[in-house]
Amino acid sequence: MPERETSLQDRARRVIEAKSENFIELIKVAQLDPGRDLRFSNWSGISFRGLDLRNFDLTGSRLVNCDFAGARIRGARFEGADIKGANLRKAKDWSSYLKAWTPPKQAVGSRHLHTGAVFQDAPFAEMVVVPAGEFIMGSPESEEERYSDEGPQREVTFGQRFAVGRFAVTFEEWDACVADGGCNGYRPDDEGWGRGRRPVINVSWDDAQAYAAWLSRKTGKTYRLLSEAEWEYVVRAGTTTPFWWGASISLQQANYDGNYTYGSGPKGEYRQRTVPVDSFQPNPWGLYQVHGNVWEWTEDCHHDSYDGAPRDGSALTTGDSSRRVVRGGSWAGNPRNLRSAYRGWNFPGLRGGNLGFRVARTL
């Protein structure tokens, strides 16, 4: 390891071990340049509350559970940093940071990111690194209210890890695309429910493709819709039950039409609208609202069974391209349609108040 790099890490370690609330003063004493010397370091658990971090470069660093409440971050760099548990959105100037963000001069790799890390190539998408592995796709014939197109069950293998949106794409993120000249200038209606952190709705499969193309241009990385197999793999997150938490469902776990039930779940409120994307508990891999709230477009064309479908997790794009697969169910749906294995479809040009999407990125 180069002598200068070792010296920087030693000084950075002393800053962390000091456990002082005055982080700014400590890095000055350690003679660390905040625009150069803080990259790819472990700052997990540090409180940046109320500090002026403008133009700090924290690229690739571990910022797990860091507190940014009231901090100023405009001009700071967080690309490739692990921000799991960090409250960046609580920064005092989050909105201006979002508007002023520009791509880094040099692309940031992903080899340093461990499975389970939460990162962003841009403030427009929080991504979760999911593991390589295999799973059984589809539902067993014994599953309650199963449909025939959920089979035959088959093993699907993912040879490499990849990244998935922690949340469905929000109005905040979509509106940033439009403000930047992307997304064909289309501003979807929010039905009067609010924008911000609610999932973007009234977007078609074609609209979702336009967003992914803009995000790819903006970041220099390849963003896309999930394949149907990727979607079910990350939703199940190692589970085999109809929902990631078990075999029944309640309105404390997801947003759907509470006039209907599934399993031993009770009836309840029918909210008749979306809720913010960070509502309810995330699944074991840290993904929010994989069941309910909005249907999520996938890349695949719809087929009536899994006969002949790829076993490597790739999208099935042959066949009838006028029907694209949607997954997850929605606020307006019967809870049986929220099951991990349930498959819906829609026309790629259709927009609706219960249609949204999330993105994926190959690592």
Question: How would you characterize the overall build of this protein?
Answer:
It is a single chain. The N terminus is likely disordered. The strands form 3 sheets. A 5-stranded antiparallel beta sheet has the order 1-2-5-11-6. A 4-stranded mixed beta sheet has the order 9-8-7-10. The protein is built from 6 helices and 11 strands. The chain has a domain of 240 residues: paralog of FGE (formylglycine-generating enzyme) (Alpha-Beta Complex). 17% of the residues lie in helices and 13% in strands. It is globular and about 65 Å long. The chain has 363 residues and is of the alpha+beta class.
In short:
With 363 residues, the protein is α+β, with helices and mostly antiparallel strands.
Radius of gyration: 21 Å
CATH homologous superfamily heading of the domain at 124-363: paralog of FGE (formylglycine-generating enzyme)
The overall average pLDDT, rounded, is 92
Measured between the Cα atoms of the first and last residue, the distance is 26 Å
User: How many helical stretches?
Assistant: 6
Strand content: 5-15%
In total, the number of strands is 11
Structural topology:
Elements: H1 3-18, H2 23-29, H3 94-100, E1 118-122, E2 125-130, E3 133-137, E4 154-158, E5 162-165, H4 171-179, H5 205-219, E6 223-225, H6 228-236, E7 295-301, E8 324-327, E9 344-346, E10 355-356, E11 359-362
Parallel strand pairs: 7-10
Antiparallel strand pairs: 1-2, 2-5, 3-4, 5-11, 6-11, 7-8, 8-9
